[in-house]
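Sample intake — Pseudouridine synthase
Collected from: Tsukamurella sputi
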Amino acid sequence: MNRPARRDGTPDRNRTSKPKQPSKQGGVPRLSNAKPARTQNVAARKADRAPSDGVPGTGAATGPEGEGIRLQKVLAQSGVASRRVAEEMIADGRVEVDGEIVMEQGRRVDPNVAVVRVDGVRVVVNENLVHLALNKPRGWQSTMSDDMGRPCVGDIVAERVAAGQRLFHVGRLDADTEGLLLVTNDGELAHRLMHPSYEVPKTYLAWVQGEVPRRLGNTLRGGVELEDGPVKADKFSVLEASEGRSMVRIVLHEGRKHIVRRLLAEVGHPVERLVRTHVGSVALGDQRPGSLRVLGRDDVTALYKAVGL
């Protein structure tokens, strides 16, 4: 190993580089409480990839002999179908690239840029896109860092960020709310999921004070006036009600601050515990608190469809 040199050019054997120590908060090293998944996405196949020489801003190459990856191979690598079946799909006119139906075999595309659809449904072919589900624990901040040293989402994805992945969370949950939070580097998808005009539903389980009458659902679906405007529940159901406490399920498509807590408090049932279980059709399932899960192709495709991508 080469050692640092003195000003006269001779090695200084007393000087050695020291490894960086983990950052500490209150004298205790801050570590992620969840081990990221071993595989975030499909392994890059660099030897088989090249930038497109087609129209700038599109994923299409100039023809069968252009640069890029053959379309049927892209579809096979994305898990849509085997290469043979993918060839049949192309021949049947079921595949489009950047809005154009492609029927010739051997068409090459750049998967980092191309928008590929099969039967009108978008297929995720960009291997650099990351889509994760996080079960945010209660008491954790929905931020990538926290100046006060409180545990946050950034701690859970720290190893991935350190490896060069530029991740961010889609929306946020308040510190006392648990459950599903999406983490990605897919900017357009994240923007649309958060924008109220796309009305992507979010489902919550809430444990509230008081025995909730089942007729309350009519009131919530009809709309309740809050200080910053009216809000309506898309769906509402009482799951349990006994001994002065109830568990309810509520679905909303908007994301105003503390909207579920404020809505239920307004109708006389303050929230004691709140868990988000779904974003669109993506479910939290039995994922443990603080853990990450790579979304499957079906989940990502459903999110794209929900926001019109």
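Post-analysis note: The chain has a mean pLDDT of 81.
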